[in-house]
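Hello Y.,

Per our agreement to keep a running log of every chain we model this quarter, I'm adding this entry. I've kept the format consistent with earlier entries: sequence first, then predicted structure.
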Amino acid sequence: MSTVPDIEKDHSAFLTATELIDADHHLIRETAERMTAGSRDDGGRVQALFTFVRDAVPYSLHISRRMEAYRASAVLERGRGFCTQKAILFTTLARSLSLPAGIALYDIVDHTLPDAAADLFGGRRLRRHGIPAVHLSGAWVQADCTLHRELALEKDLEPVVFSGRTDAFMPALTRSGGPGITYERYYGIAADITPEDIHAWYGRHLQRKMQKNK
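Predicted structure for the entry above:
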């Protein structure tokens, strides 16, 4: 995982294309331009991208062994993804519009996680949960686009709404007042995520999945 020592002063690493953040891909550029065509400013563009990634790319808990499955253009073509894949896609779309963007990483506890998913992950604590971060009006703001609207409501959670001005996280409480999502350890904002990072973070889950499927 690559980060810039002073992200407030140097945004260059948050604007470039990388192996997984393929911001120069024609499909990425075309989609970003189409989704933001009616936006008047950067805040509106970011809102439009957030809503698109949140809802038009539904959440799907499928951790692939194929590293190309994490490339933004592949996630866009497949039309679904889990947290880190969707964060990579949002980041890539934003960079294609020359908006500095990266991926904020957290350990979270998802109290609403179904038992089958908890078995796969060895509990409800999810490590290296990725969400997009974008630099707007002189500050970094983060917005969790992981759960599409229908799934959030199914999990008894209010869908995340992003204003383009302040951070937007999944709610700590469900709509009925039970425990929702707890953001625990914060790792900072990554300028890039590599296939090596993906393997290191999710390799143990792949092994557990393979063992369960034997």
